[in-house]
Amino acid sequence: MNFLLNKPKLAALVFGLILVLPGPLLLRLTLDNAPESYFPESAPAVIFDKEVRTYFPQDQVLVAIFQGNDIFSRQFLHSLEQLSKNLELETNIERVLSVTQVDHIEPTDDGFAVESLLGEGQTTDSASENLARALSDRFAPNALVSSDGSTLALIIRPVPLSGSLARLSLYNHVIDSIEESEVRESLIAVGGHIALDVAQLRAMIRDLATLIPGTLGVSMLVLWWLFRRWQVLLISALCIGAVTGAATSLLVLIGSPFTLISAIMPPLLTALTVAMLMHLFSALCNADSRGLRCEARMRDALLTVSTPILFTALTTAAGLLSLMASPIQPIASFGLTVGVATLIGALLIVTVLPALLLQIEPERWQAQSGGLRRMDAITSRLLRISLRRPRTVLAVTAAVLLISALQLPRIIVETDLYSFFDDDHPINQATLTIEDKLSGVMPLELIIEDVGPGSLKNPQQLKAIANIEAWLENRPEVDYTISFPAMLSEMHRAFNPEIESPNALPDREAAVDQYLLFYDNDDLYDVVDEDFQRTRILANLNVHGATQLNALLRALDEEVASTLADGLKLGTAGMGRLFADQERLLIKGQINSLFLVSTMITLLMLILWRNLRFVLASILPNFAPVLLIFAVMGTLGIWLDMATAMVASVAIGIAVDDTIHLLHGTRAGLERGAGLTAAIARSVRRRGRALVATTVVLSAQFLLMSSSPFQPTAIFGILTAVGLLIALVFDLLVLPALIVVLLRGVVKN
User: Fold this and answer.
1) Within-domain flag for 595
2) Which end of the chain is more exposed for a tag (fewer CB within 10 A), N or C?
3) Which of 12-50 are b and which e, b meaning 16 or more Cβ less than 10 Å from the residue's Cβ?
4) Is residue 388 located within the same domain as residue 493?
């Protein structure tokens, strides 16, 4: 590993290339946190949703709501109509829905007429009359106007948008248009899934703007406190830049967008890189204390830490790469890019950076102000307990793990994007207002297909579909529905005023054809295709979490199995369907990644130690903290979601690093003829300082993430920090006891 040590120019060239080459690729990086980017292309729900979009508009919308005493005045409605028409002129907006833009079915002497609900020519000078007309419509209440008349909605349905930046552009344009209109004073909130995506994008940018300099600053402060060398800060900063640049460019190369999951990447890589560097700097201090100088000091340090650093990088990468087993694409991409970047960082630290550091290193490498020495008290106290009472330590550990295991059934698998924000966040306040005054913001589509063109005009099929809609309307999760049979029943009642039932349907197909001649409007084809072979029931749900969505879908499946008419096929689509699948994907990804990381780390330990007892000693103390992390989640009610699903693999990959350093030192002592207890004590004394220091640095950086107002980032940071601190205690307290019990009497072998 020392082949570049005497070739500083070549080392500088290699390092310069690694720093510079990612630059052009970074210009091609795309920011996209849209919900679709989280689902695998091969998922049945994704495939079906794409098929649905070929004949029905998308369900992701932007909802602006207005309140005020004058919102039903002629002037306000005229201004709202002008705003709606202006927005519809935009190429990225497919449809704008408001009380001024939708149709209203009005009975006439010879049938019915299709008029604008409150558009030009339909308003009066009386606000109460305008309100009464809006509330008389079957479909406007709870969608475009609140039942108490206090709220109006403007629903913007865009064309398919590619990426979060396009959604941000749409959001800003709509807000700017409202601000330039006469209705601006009445705007109180903007919500919907597009607004949610924009809120997540802004949270991601804010996290990047604070966490990157924050974690870097913490690293530099701790490194200065421990080593007091400007060379340490310079080399560390350059190495962090190279590693994070490599990871980000790899994200571009694999065609993956930068998401909220990716936003964790820079602070995590900063922490991992600094941890590896600290082992090198600590080894240099140790070599210096033994009288070694210059190149001899560097070679001794590399001899001590090169193998542990490389193997710890391998185990960390194994933990991260195991995330590729997750079917959630941003998690898989995160695992790949950070895992590969960790390996690049390790290779830089043991091959390239020593040659550069040798050119600028200080004359002495002793730690100043007792920075590292202050770690000794912690390690010595834990070591003394472990070596004197190994069986007691292991018995207490087993009891703690048993109690922790009892908490596992309490873990809740859930994904609710709105819960990622504080209750007082504007997106949650807007959603609360929309759902209180109008209806839920989670869309669910029931897609019903018949055997051939025109078959959905059959009265029996229409009644079967209407029965499904009626069942939906009675569910507490459903606030609003609209369907083709509902629109037909409104035409039927208008054509036959004597009919009192609001859901009566024509009993002849000829009557259906007659009504459709009167009502040939684009709004109709939002719920039925032009061949009348496919239709959809649109439902607005007031639940957002995967658990509640799945409960509704299971109940729907049971209902449909017993009531769906022959020849009809039913499927579910929309954001409600996609988010319901998150629960299954998270469980599958967690099981796959845990199995994969366990297998890879076990194999790496077998390759490194080639001794089953050493393998057991290296594995047990590192999987136990993961059990404790899950126990904390179960006890505190922390959900297993997109962020926390990564904690176990990341924690295992990082935690095993300290174990490798301690076991490597213990084995080296045994090979030199030391007794078991002496070898353990020597290893802990020489490496314990660095282990405590690196854990403190890593934990501090992860705890810094807890300051994020965005809940996934904060929870990921807290749980990972807790896991690392637990792992440190296991390494300094449980690992020595485990080595004593496993190896006593067989050391010579």
Assistant:
1) no
2) C
3) eebbeebeeebeebeeeebbbbbbbbbbbeebebbebbe
4) no
- List beta partners, residue 695: none
Instruction: Kindly report the CATH number assigned to the domain that includes residue 497.
Output: 3.30.70
Residue 116 burial (CB < 10 Å; 0-12/13-18/19+)?
middle
The percent of residues in the chain predicted with pLDDT above 90, rounded, is: 55
- Look at residue 336 and tell me if it is in a domain: yes
Lowest mean pLDDT among 361-370, 682-691, 735-744: 361-370
CA distance 117 to 284: 79
Strand partners, 447: 536, 571
The pTM (predicted TM-score) of the whole model is 0.88
Q: Per 3-state DSSP, what percentage of the chain is helix, strand, and coil (rounded to 5)?
A: 65, 10, 25
Residue partners of 626: CB distance under 8 A and separation at least 6? 594, 648, 651, 652, 723
Closest by CA position to 455, among listed 381, 535, 553: 535
Q: pLDDT at residue 567 above 50? A: yes
For residue 418, CA distances in Å to 92, 153, 155, 199, 473 come to 25, 20, 20, 10, 24
- Structural domain contains residue 490: yes
Least confident of 325-334, 403-412, 465-474, 560-569: 560-569
User: pLDDT value at position 106?
Assistant: 86
pLDDT at 367: 58
Of the chain, the end-to-end C-alpha distance in Å amounts to 29
The rounded distance, in Å, linking the Cα atoms of 532 and 513 is 11
Please indicate, yes or no, whether residues 387 and 336 belong to a single structural domain of this protein: no
Q: Read out DSSP for 186-225?
A: GEEEEESHHHHHHHHHHHHHHHHHHHHHHHHHHHHHHHHH
540 sits in which H/E element: strand 534-541
Nearest-angstrom CA–CA distance, 658 and 729: 11
- Torsion-angle region of residue 612: left (phi > 0), alpha (psi -120 to 50) or beta? alpha
The confidence band for 745, taking pLDDT boundaries of 50, 70 and 90, is low
Lowest mean pLDDT among 11-15, 25-29, 168-172: 25-29
Q: What is the mean pLDDT of residues 358-372?
A: 69
Alpha-carbon distance of 523 to 312, in angstroms, equals 61
pLDDT, mean over the chain: 89
* Shared domain check, 462 and 573: yes
Q: Find the DSSP H helices in 137-163.
A: none
Residue at which a domain ends, from 338, 366, 394 = 366
Length of the chain: 749
The DSSP H or E segment spanning 144 is: none
Q: What confidence category does residue 749 fall into, taking pLDDT thresholds of 50, 70 and 90?
A: very low
Distance of CA 395 to the CA centre of its chain: 38
One DSSP character per residue, 615-658 reads HHHHHHHHHHHHHHHHHHHHHHT--B-TTGGGHHHHHHHHHHHH
Q: Are residues 520 and 620 in the same domain?
A: no
3-class DSSP string for 734-746: HHHHHHHHHHCCC
474: in domain: yes
- Given this model, what pLDDT does residue 364 score? 79
